[in-house]
Write a structure and sequence with these properties.
InterPro entries: DinB-like, DinB/YfiT-like. By secondary structure, this protein is mainly α. It has one domain (3-108, 130-189). It has helices spanning 3-23, 29-33, 43-71, 77-83, 88-92, 116-136, 159-189, and strands at 146-149, 155-158.
Length: 190
């Protein structure tokens, strides 16, 4: 396993996801506030949900990164790197909207407490947090801690995979926001 390439791939995916989500903050009010006909969330609510989910995932990522760095003192990192292979297929569905049933906890549902500028600024901080963790664990240490992820039965995943999951979660909702925008445009043409 080329751990450095793996980490770089996650950094690239993370940057692209956060940049793409960030562009949605510049959409017009009509697009941001459109309530889709299926009763789903508005774009603004989706953005808040992404922030909230990132918030809770980052708690686990922080704990995991600290434990991984402690484990580095006791475990054989070279052996972990040599024996690790990333199961891309296992994660693929996470980034696809509607690929599986996802019942999110209530604390990850948008409440409308934060305005768009606050959410945007907090998400920028979240991106930097993820980048900082990847830089901290730049030699493969993130493999040395696994935490259970119940979503889509992913099971025990390492800290890098948690960060990738966070990035994929954003991708999942980009599709949802695009669908909302398409419906808004379609309604304007009527």
């Amino acid at each position: 396993m080329d751990i450095f390439r793996f980490i770089q791939d996650i950094k690239t995916h993370l940057k692209l996801s956060f940049d793409e989500v960030d562009r949605w903050f510049d959409k017009d009010k009509r697009t941001l506030d459109h309530k889709p006909s299926n009763g789903g969330w508005t774009v603004q609510q989706i953005l808040e949900h992404i922030y909230l989910t990132n918030f809770y995932l980052l708690i686990l990522i922080e704990k995991g990164s600290k434990k991984a760095m402690r484990n580095h003192l006791e475990l054989d990192l070279d052996s972990e790197i040599k024996n690790y292979s990333f199961d891309h297929e296992k994660f693929e569905k996470v980034g696809k909207h509607g690929a599986f049933e996802w019942i999110r906890p209530e604390h990850m549902e948008p409440k409308g407490v934060l305005n768009l500028n606050e959410i945007r600024n907090l998400m920028a901080q979240q991106y930097h947090q993820c980048s900082d963790y990847l830089n901290l664990m730049k030699n493969g240490e993130g493999l040395l801690c696994k935490t259970t992820m119940t979503v889509n039965d992913l099971g025990k995943i390492n800290v890098y995979e948690y960060i990738y999951f966070l990035s994929l979660h954003s991708q999942r909702h980009l599709t949802q926001m695009k669908n909302n925008e398409s419906e808004t445009i379609k309604n304007l043409k009527k």
